[in-house]
Amino acid sequence: MSPDKGVDTAIEVARRAGRPLLIAAKMWEPDEVRFHDEVVRPLLGDGVTYVGPVAGPAKDALLEGAVALLDPLRWPEPFGLVMVEAMARGTPVLAFPQGAAAEIVDPGITGFHCRDGAHMAALVDRAAALDRRACRRRAEDRFGARRMVAAHVALYRRLLDTGTPGSAPVSAGAV
């Protein structure tokens, strides 16, 4: 429920797109509670519902049932696990292309990069039309357990062989 997560922008996007919105977010820190009470709570209702934090099968079901994950971050998040979790469930992601989102979201396959909230709202229907199986496959290919273990093993081997990680960084996209 941090202001950096852009929940208020997601609400604006859903309303512009004429879609309901379920907000799943933790709200434990004083700043999160304050942001919720002052900014988000007045915007709830009329198709916008705060469901609280979700995990496990409930999170999987929420993501699987979504048309798209709205991720209008206001900061360059270094890695957006929730984006990968959504894509692993076949749910496309609409995000601003900053931080890891620029690399995680494959436009036209796993979602779209959006310029602003209005652009994000305009892309909701296009995201809904994406092939959810292709979205899932891309997430598995790039972030699945086999892929990630192989990347870690390659890094460990380089460390053992050279004592340094090498000049090329190990990322989700390259081994």
From TrEMBL:
PANTHER family found in the cross-reference section: BLL5217 PROTEIN, GLYCOSYLTRANSFERASE
Gene Ontology MF annotations: glycosyltransferase activity
Domain Glycosyl transferase family: 2-127
Keyword Transferase: yes
Superkingdom: Bacteria
Presence of the UniProt keyword Transferase in the record: yes
Source organism (scientific name): Actinomarinicola tropica
InterPro entries assigned: Glyco_trans_1
Keywords (A to Z) from UniProt: Transferase
Protein name from the UniProt record: Glycosyltransferase
